[in-house]
Amino acid sequence: MPPKQPSTPGPMPTPSSASSTAGTFSAPGVPQPTGIPRPSNAQSYPRTPTTPGGLHAGIGGPSTVSAAAGGASVSGNVTPTTPGNVSAPPSSTQSTYTQADLNRIVLEYLLKKGYSKTEQMLRMESSNAMGGTPSPQSAINDSKTSNGTILKSTTDDPQLYIRAYASLRDWIETSLDLFKPELRKLLFPIFVHTFFYLIQKPDTNSPATSLARKFFDTYSGDHSILHYHDLQLLSGLTLPEHLQENETAKLYIQNKYRLNISRTTFDLLLHFLDENERNGGPVTIRLINQYIETNVTPSRPDRNDSRNQTLGDDEGIPGHITGRETNFNKQAVRLGKFPMDERMIKEVELRLKDEDNRSQQEHDEIGTVPGSKTLMQEFQELHKQEPEEDAPVRDVLPLPPFKGADVEAEIAAVKDARSRLKIGPAQASLPSVCMYTFHNTYDGLNCLEFSEDSTLVAGGFADSYVKVWSLKGEKLQGVIKGSTPTPSKRLVGHAGPVFGASFSPDNRYLLTCSDDKSARLWSMDTYSALVSYKGHNLPVWDVSFSPNGHYFATASHDQTARLWSCDHIYPLRIFAGHVSDVDCVTFHPNSTYVLTGSSDKSCRMWDVAKGTAVRVMLSHQAPVSCVCVSPDGRILASGADDGSIILWDLGTGKQIKTMRGHDRNTSVYSLSFSREGTVLVSAGADGSVRVWNVKGGSTTPSSVDGVVGGIAGTAAGTTASSGATDSDEMLANPMSNGIVAASSATAPGMSAAIQKQSASMIGRPTPVVATADQMAVFMTKKTPVYKIKFTRRNLCLAGGAFMGTS
Length: 806
Hints:
Helix content: 10-25%
Shape: elongated
Protein name: WD40-repeat-containing domain protein
Organism: Lipomyces kononenkoae
């Protein structure tokens, strides 16, 4: 679905975006704020060894850090290596030097070389370590630079702590995606202890608690997904006495926060803090040394780390589970098929046996051999007699008695399953795509939806109406006496732009949602509105029918998803937990779970019976734009506004892999699994349909020349992908005064040069390097693809609005 533009005013909370900072560090993609320049006579020092628990550690000394201009660092109570041109005392007399003598030697050297701030910091650390206070002369020296300028001590300035956190946060958000997950885990303990400090030492220029409260309100949203429970417990702290009474606050003060961090990420953080003294680098170092226990690992960060910024089992505060999505995701779920009604099974079997007998008689009359499978055998494979171990109990979801239309729909599904084309990761079994291009929409088409039997397509428009076309090329006529057959039917009833649509499994009803905060049910027999469902407080972005056709779900701008039944005008469940818009919603194949994607960059799975979340999936770096569940109910695919697609294991809630191929910063509008669940297709704003290998585990780029790898799709004659024709798509079977045009494509190979040419035709930048699990790509010239769907026979239908020349 293209970007939504709600006309209803109202607050729309979104995650805070970090501002970029200029940098001087030469590491690629990791900008560093400019630090205090080194003196002209500064010499380079050997870097002090790093140990878990602190950023710098002296040889044989405690894990304590001191930061100084120019990158020099000295730790208190440590025998330093004599740098530069200062010769070390002879080894025979080293034992005669006291700690004070050694500190004096280093201080004299630092003063001689102009490292005034390093000297000042060392004096402070030494006095703290020895339990004394600096002498008056030392205090005078500490407050002066080498030029005699009086310096103001900033270590107790509350504003400096706020600047330190903001600077670290901005630097992390502008770092490479490879390092962000590990660095983001560091932000929460720094946030907590900065908040505690502001409570203890409020700004003298403002009311006692206003600075701490403003800091909390400004930055707590960064951690609301993983640490929502802790933030709720800490939000009421306003006075220093509260820190001694609040159990959560005492937990963070009395225990060190454990974090695992790779060597590469650790070195980048160290360099940033050393160079960022002006914006509170030493403050951050002090907080890390005092409250965080870092375990530096020799490995590099894993780009496909399924935990992302969530905590591992050995991280965080021991015994405290906040931030560990994996613990939440250990709740038991039942992902098996929903059992069919026994009476319906007998009715369907009876009908299928009659069909098989008639088919056998026809084959006997003409002397041919029937197919390898009978309808009865196909039905038994689809619905095994022995239920799966994790299948839900039928009583958990109240359903109305089955009807004759349900039996007819099941028989049609069995026939389609027997005629299904088998597709998979093999080159010879790639899917074919039939593309429908909508012309003359004048940027008014917001959404598309194909019916389950592939006979109808519906579009929602910004002009508040819905339009339905027949894919069979026939005119549509209602059952009402006197109705006139027309190429399309216009459904009028909404009072705002229509953003989502969904056909019922029996194709008799259509659900739509709108900016007018309502969802409407339409009859495909009379082409008229039946019910208006109102309950959301803000625009409704998406709607989805359940596989059984009795329930449906909506996703809204009010940060909730809601469960409805067709026979009630009020919601049955309200799924609240996302901290931003719920942009997309779909049902699990067994209808007992609802899955949502949100602008807070998370996906959630909700239990329909309990109304609570049972899975939270966090790895996306951009708002989630679409979700889709595999036919077996084991895998969730989610697409985001940055063009990435992530596969999730619903049993564990863990990420399986990330797939890239769509252009950067272009939304993935739609996803669909093949009936076997081995192939995934995606459609996006970059005007492409891409085919992915679900079972393949590799996420490495398939090419290194900067173009999309894999196999691109072309077609002989009519094409929707290669861009080799004079028009955007070859028009065939025009319907509804030229509004809809269909074209089809298959998947022979396409060279990288042609891909570049297609990209240039559509006016996009060169595509990103695709991961190796991309099997094919079908390109259009100027048609963003709004909807993609596999039919029951594994034909792929796609649709989009032609954008014209620009």
